Each structure stands twice: as structure tokens, then as C-alpha cells.
Input
Amino acid sequence: DAGVIQSPRHEVTEMGQEVTLRCKPISGHNSLFWYRQTMMRGLELLIYFNNNVPIDDSGMPEDRFSAKMPNASFSTLKIQPSEPRDSAVYFCASSPRGGQPGELFFGEGSRLTVL
Amino acid sequence: RKEVEQDPGPFNVPEGATVAFNCTYSNSASQSFFWYRQDCRKEPKLLMSVYSSGNEDGRFTAQLNRASQYISLLIRDSKLSDSATYLCVVSGNAGNNRKLIWGLGTSLAVNP
Output
């Protein structure tokens, strides 16, 4: 069975450029999460969706970040304009309907470097 | 005080050793608790849930102490393949138990 699929796996860009990260959750999962991981701050929840609806975006750092989930099989996280402090690994995760709150299935992550 | 605290380690142990990690949490209303494992440059993967009565899965035992607000993970007969970072995860209160709070992780290196 396919797991959570993220793209790109690696992205190197220059400050000020737009970055779009993509995620395909596991089929049948109804919750989707975007996380950011850095050495200093660990894993931080940016936003999560339930049935394609954003439920909690309090972790989104600022207006430069936006996320969408147009359908049950696709989500994007966009950073515009990007800054060097956005450099991190961005993980997408999904969880099944009725699953435990901590039962998340992560993608392999998108490693972003902003120069 | 951080919401979830872990000793970062690293814990360096020989193969076959028993090793234990603790994790403390600050929100007494937390509902659910988990241990995840993350290999170097990989994604986190759920290792086990932590139940009030404690639970065991092979060489791994997880315990919860609500009074002292900590959870623990015990690994017996450690293997080289157990080398990883172990992340403690605590859910929010009943109103938003989808919001997980993650510790920074404890690094374990099992040596031959």
C-alpha cells in the first residue's frame, strides 16, 4: 500500500522565491497534518485538516505561509516569499477516521533550504 | 517550562543492554501519550501508544505516571537496529486532542 507521498524531496531556493510543497495522503485517511521540523524546535504542527477543512492553523508562522486541501487526495503548503529561517524539513502526515489522535502516518518529508 | 521535555542524550549502550527513557509533560489535562521512533534523516514512525495500565510490545515497555506527569520507555536486550531518536508525544486536552505536542527526542546509539 502506498504511504503518504510528498514532493519535492529536496528543494533549494533563494530568499524571496515562492515554494510549493505537495502531499498526497493515504487513501481513505480523513485527517491531514503539515509539520515543520528543525533541530532547535523539533516537530511543530503548522496546520491540520479534517475532511479537507482546515481545523487549526494556529501554528502557521505568518502570512507568508498558506495551505490548501482542494480534495481528499491532495494538499499544498506554500511559502511566499521564502526566507532563510524557513529552512527545515516539512512533513505531511495523515491519519485514519476513528484512529487514535496520535496515530499519524508521515511522508518522507521535504527538505527545504532557503539561501 | 517546556510542555514536553526529554533528555536529549545521547544514550550510548552496548548490544543487549536495557535502557530507559523518561519524558515529562506539563499539561495535567493531557489525554493520550505515544512514543515515536525517528531514524536519521527519516520520518517519525509510531512505536507504541502509552496506556494508563502500561503496555508491552516485545522488548519495549511503556508506562504512564499521571500523578508525576511522566511517561517512560524501556527497551530490553537492545539491538543495533534500535539506534534512533525516540520522540515522546502528548495529545492536547479533550477539546483538541488532535493537537499533539512533541518532545525534541532522546537519541539512542546501540554499539556492538
